[in-house]
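ARCHIVE CARD
CATEGORY: sequence design from structure
SOURCE FIELD: tokenized fold
FIELD CONTENT:
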């Protein structure tokens, strides 16, 4: 039986509000460490940019910066579209809540073409058991409500809050409800695991995202699988800041996206 999927735009009721403005609603079940899940806001900026662009072009990059602390409820998005020649289009999106700016993003769209440089496959997925062979890991709802929307199945590496020596995690992740695995869904999945420093800790603390960059390695001409393999590694922590790098592959071993997050350590 074919699995029914939806889009982030439908899940969060994204609707046009006129004059290059859109509204969406993020309820409390999508709450992360300090507010609405950062990946959800990133996904919504991509969906807004796609509509503002008005062209059927693949997403190539997202650069998101948080400007304030958003709350649950309605968000308003404003978009400015900037075409660059015939193959590239950039859309700048500002997210607002109750008149205050909470995030800004720049989304780059680019047409697929052929060049004299041969295609090269991205980084290979690490050898891990298939998702069905991995036990599900549940993030306690009392810590982060959004955990109920992620089917996380650790496949390699230490678990969060185990006092491990290594600061990395690898897990199969699927979204609940099931969403089409596109650029917007990948923005959510890139932020699905706890901060990569968490395996070295024994108690949770707030490590919110300040900046998130997402780089797409596919134009989705071949659809990606709903369950993806996510590898997140801490590349360094110090002075109250922490940087994570993330790679995402589908079940066929195809590298879909890479991401980098800069986080503030509050504690």
């Amino acid at each position: 039986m074919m699995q029914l999927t939806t889009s982030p735009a439908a899940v969060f009721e994204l609707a046009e509000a006129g004059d290059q403005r859109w509204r969406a609603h993020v309820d409390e079940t999508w709450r992360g460490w300090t507010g609405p899940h950062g990946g959800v806001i990133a996904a919504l900026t991509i969906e807004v940019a796609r509509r503002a662009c008005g062209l059927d072009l693949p997403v190539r990059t997202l650069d998101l910066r948080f400007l304030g602390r958003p709350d649950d409820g309605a968000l308003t998005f404003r978009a400015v579209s900037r075409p660059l020649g015939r193959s590239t289009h950039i859309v700048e999106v500002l997210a607002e809540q109750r008149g205050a700016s909470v995030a800004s993003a720049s989304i780059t769209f680019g047409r697929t073409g052929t060049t004299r440089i041969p295609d090269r496959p991205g980084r290979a997925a690490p050898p891990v058991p298939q998702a069905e062979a991995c036990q599900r890991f549940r993030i306690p709802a009392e810590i982060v409500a959004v955990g109920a929307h992620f089917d996380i199945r650790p496949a390699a590496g230490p678990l969060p809050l185990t006092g491990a020596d290594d600061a990395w995690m690898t897990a199969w992740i699927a979204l609940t409800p099931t969403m089409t695995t596109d650029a917007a869904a990948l923005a959510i999945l890139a932020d699905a695991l706890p901060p990569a420093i968490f395996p070295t800790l024994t108690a949770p603390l707030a490590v919110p995202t300040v900046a998130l960059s997402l780089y797409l390695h596919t134009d989705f001409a071949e659809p990606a699988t709903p369950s993806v393999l996510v590898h997140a590694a801490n590349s360094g922590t110090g002075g109250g800041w922490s940087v994570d790098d993330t790679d995402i592959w589908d079940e066929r071993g195809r590298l879909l996206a890479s991401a980098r997050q800069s986080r503030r350590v509050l504690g």
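CARD ANNOTATION: The radius of gyration is 18 Å. The chain has one domain: 8-112+139-264.
SHELF: design records, drawer C
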